[in-house]
Structure to design on (420 residues):
């Protein structure tokens, strides 16, 4: 190998990019040529010093955040499922809705002060304070008791409204209290009820033999 | 490469690509010579890379791939601004280099050795300026080789040029760099030129 060839490849020798099989030729030339050996020494010293001065500049701290934000804008995060859109919530909500829809059509349980017990669906003896006679349809529609007393709708019937807002139908065939079912004048009266509750038809039959139903107002 | 929903692809991309942000920024800074432009260029390159992430082949040099995208982004900007990259007359560089460092000078020089003298006397800013003064196609190759220590094969991939072109550009780029630095030093009177050496020998 001559000096010209060696010098033409000196940078590649430094970069370790000389094929292995040819490296021997270069090393052999270095042994024979002090000028080229010196040149390589100079170049290597220069290269090492240059690399030391060419420190890589670090990216500014905010750049990564900026790039990540740009990438996120390009490919947004997966839409996060809101808690109210999760399957379990939907199932729970559906169940609750079903209950709310069905409650009005279900037999209403007797009020708190019920006395007696029995299996579901069985007739129960009830005693209830502060039960008010109302026009069932008008009261459900939110009409006042004064309005209800003036209502002369032929198909409206009275019902008993308990302290916690439930409605009980009044048995029409009980002796002595027949007016309770249809008489508008009875609306707005507060009563203490003692009788039997028929859950299947949500109806109270006031026990006249005990004379437990009395007008308060 | 990646498949799946966009946010999943983004997560994969960030994992493999963002670790090279310093390297990309350094190259961008050397290309644009301006920190703000460099930041914009890095962001643009990352976005472009993400859009083409499907075409990236796992196992290949991702740094070279990212460099290629960044450099193409830079070139596109040049085209958009209709700015012509600087041209260089290599014959002048060659002769200047030969004048500054020749065989005889190297053999006769004694401590301080020329390489030590050069690098001790030039300032960091002057080294940076010498890099900056290189034409872009040489600057990129030199930076990839010297700073990033990439192999010729990686550089060829990053620059989309043949291996032989990498070799010639690196060779010429380094010579230009040395010439610039020697010129700085000569102006300061540290290193003598060829004629100075010959004159010293005669006496």
């Amino acid at each position: 190998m001559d000096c010209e060839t060696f010098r033409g490849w000196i940078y590649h020798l430094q970069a370790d990019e000389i094929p292995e099989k040819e490296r021997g030729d270069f090393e052999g030339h270095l042994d024979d040529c002090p000028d080229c050996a010196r040149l390589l020494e100079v170049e290597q010293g220069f290269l090492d010093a240059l690399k030391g001065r060419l420190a890589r500049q670090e990216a500014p701290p905010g750049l990564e955040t900026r790039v990540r934000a740009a990438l996120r804008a390009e490919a947004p995060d997966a839409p996060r499922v809101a808690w109210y859109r999760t399957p379990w919530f939907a199932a729970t909500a559906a169940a609750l809705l079903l209950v709310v829809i069905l409650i009005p059509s279900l037999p209403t349980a007797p009020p708190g002060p019920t006395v007696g017990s029995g299996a579901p669906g069985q007739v129960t003896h009830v005693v209830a304070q502060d039960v008010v006679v109302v026009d069932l349809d008008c009261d459900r529609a939110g009409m006042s008791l004064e309005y209800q007393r003036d209502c002369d709708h032929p198909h409206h019937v009275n019902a008993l409204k308990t302290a916690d807002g439930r409605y009980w139908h009044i048995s029409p065939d009980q002796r002595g209290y027949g007016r309770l079912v249809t008489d508008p004048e009875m609306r707005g009266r507060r009563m203490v009820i003692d009788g039997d509750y028929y859950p299947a038809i949500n109806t109270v039959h006031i026990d006249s033999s005990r004379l437990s139903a009395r007008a308060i107002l | 490469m990646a498949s799946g929903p966009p946010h999943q692809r983004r997560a994969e991309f960030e994992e493999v690509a963002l670790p090279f942000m310093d390297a990309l920024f350094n190259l961008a800074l050397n290309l644009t010579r301006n920190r703000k432009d460099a930041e914009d260029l890095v962001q643009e390159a990352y976005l472009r890379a993400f859009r083409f992430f499907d075409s990236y082949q796992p196992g290949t040099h991702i740094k070279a791939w990212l460099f290629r995208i960044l450099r193409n982004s830079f070139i596109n900007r040049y085209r958009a601004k209709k700015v012509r990259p600087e041209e260089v007359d290599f014959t002048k560089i060659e002769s200047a280099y030969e004048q500054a460092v020749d065989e005889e000078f190297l053999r006769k020089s004694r401590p301080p050795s020329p390489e030590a003298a050069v690098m001790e006397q030039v300032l960091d800013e002057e080294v940076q300026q010498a890099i900056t003064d290189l034409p872009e196609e040489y600057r990129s190759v030199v930076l990839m080789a010297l700073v990033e220590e990439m192999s010729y094969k990686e550089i060829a991939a990053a620059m989309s040029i043949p291996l032989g072109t990498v070799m010639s550009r690196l060779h010429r780029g380094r010579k230009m760099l040395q010439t610039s630095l020697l010129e700085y030093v000569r102006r300061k009177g540290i290193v003598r030129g060829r004629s100075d050496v010959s004159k010293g020998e005669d006496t």
Observations:
- Chain B touches chain A through 51 residues (CB under 8 Å).
- The radius of gyration of chain B is 21 Å.
- Residues 103-112, 191-203 of chain B have pLDDT under 50 and may be disordered.
- Chain B has two domains: 6-81, 90-202.
